[in-house]
Sequence to fold (606 residues):
Amino acid sequence: MKDFLKLLRRFIPPYKKELFLNIFYNILSAVFGAFSFGLLIPALEILFGSKELVTTQVPWGFSLDSLLTNFNFYISKVIAQYGHERALVYIGIFIIIMVFLKVLFTYLSNYEMIEIRNGVVRDIRILIYRKILRLPLGYFSEERKGDIIARMTGDVAEVENSIMNSLDMMIKNPILIAISVGVMVYMSWSLTLFVFVMFPIAGYIIGRIGRSLKRESRIGQSKMGDILSLIEEDLSGLRVIKSFNAEESATKRFEAENQSYFFTMNRLMWRRFLAQPVSEFLGTAVIMIVMWYGGKLILNNESSLNAAAFIGYLAFFYNIINPAKAFSTALYSVEKGLASMERIDKILLAKSNISDKPDAIEITRFENQIVFENVSFAYNSAPVLNNVSLTIKKGQTIALVGQSGSGKTTMVDLLPRFWDVASGRITIDGIDIRDMKMKSLRHMIGNVNQEPILFNDTIFNNIAFGMENATMDEVVKAAKIANAHNFIIETEAGYQTKIGDRGDKLSGGQKQRISIARAVLNNPPILILDEATSALDTESEKLVQEALTNLMKNRTSLVIAHRLSTIKNADLICVLHKGEIVEQGTHDELLALKGRYTKLHKMQIF
Ligand code: ADP
Ligand code: MG
Fold:
């Protein structure tokens, strides 16, 4: 319950107006509901023939007494003038009007509630999305993609269905119950007191069942995350699954997860559906006990109520049993929803350890040099970079070479702060990059990777990605520099061609040239090329290499290359080995050393 209120305090404030109206309409609805029930009593009295005629009118006032007496006065008048039958018709019409008003205000209250419900869910979803884009890359190598998707879809839906659904009950039912109980106390406080001794007993029994619902629900949602992760992995790996004939084993893997979800959900729902019959049974039992007790009082003439008023009283009582039942069901639901909210909060409240300092500096230009000063880094415990120092002067091309796994990618990833150094520091023009505004830092750095990252959109939008208002001319110019213009105009719709998921409709070299065009358009002073040509065949490598050479003109570049021939002309070549720079110099200097570089070079010549 405490968690529930905390949740409301977090998400309800933007919807104060709707909440106020909702409560207001609910009160009106409960009041008219009470009137419609109250009118049953004179109707019954007429039917039983126990109606005592009221012959004197009292002044109108805002007290229940004056309302009731006057109402009875007018009914008595109708009975005296037109007979009992006509009076019943009048009361009937009156009840219909009251019920109409009641349902009207119920609808209006729901109308307001809908906006709160959907609004809160919308807000949560965008909060998660924003947070995901802000979280450091490291967060996502720990979490599975499918699980994050599950949190964003399934868990948000669960919060909507259970918490937001219950919110309605949580507001409406207490109001309804309070007003009905007020009337009941007015009718007979001793009977009402008796009723309320029964309630906590029933409530306790109901509460016992709901305990484990939250835990079970949490397990269910995380199982759903596993399933989505599998689907996501398998969809992107379909090619491998087919070529290795792994359909059977993939299906088995999926089946196991699916089956386990089935068992969890069974346990969850068995328990949840226990709530309804138990509360229905207990509710009826309580009513029967009250009927026995109240009936005993009336039969012995010990009660202030007559038989008709007692039936009216029972109607009121019945009127709160359903809301009370719904209220207890809502409490279960909220527990279930809170389990999902916890999972959502794992994302929302995740600490983002890579973020701007409050006094971060906005940098607009790169003037002088980039320096790695005694940089060390580890993803987990094993060190990946060890005391690396390197100075890159403006306009230079620096190449990083070394065997796979030696830490090249890691080293260049530190520059745009995809990760932060563990010790040492990286400076640009003397300023520690951790003191800069991340946005302005990343704006200065262009990135072309082995795996070009494209989106399912037009070629134009892929090139202009991240640029607010690039013109066609600029995009075409960038495409020309990137050697991409010629193949683009040959596609069916030119720059408006859609390139499919991740650019699947293009060849590797074409994808790479589009990602180069994107970098050209962004025009960053600093470039990182991480094995940009490694995945390509010789033919398209030539085209891409040309594009890269164009791109690198007048820029400071950090180039990781597999094929040493492509970096022969670099100003400085660093050989990385197990996270340390073991040799550095120009191509010729390094060959003269006859060390590790020479070995790498020989391997490629043969
Ligand atoms: P290179 O680019 O030189 O081939 P990397 O910089 O990619 O090498 O990797 C260096 C080492 O860091 C490798 O041993 C690799 O296993 C490890 N590594 C790379 N990325 C991660 C990661 N996200 N989490 C944990 N370890 C990683
Ligand atoms: Mg690499």
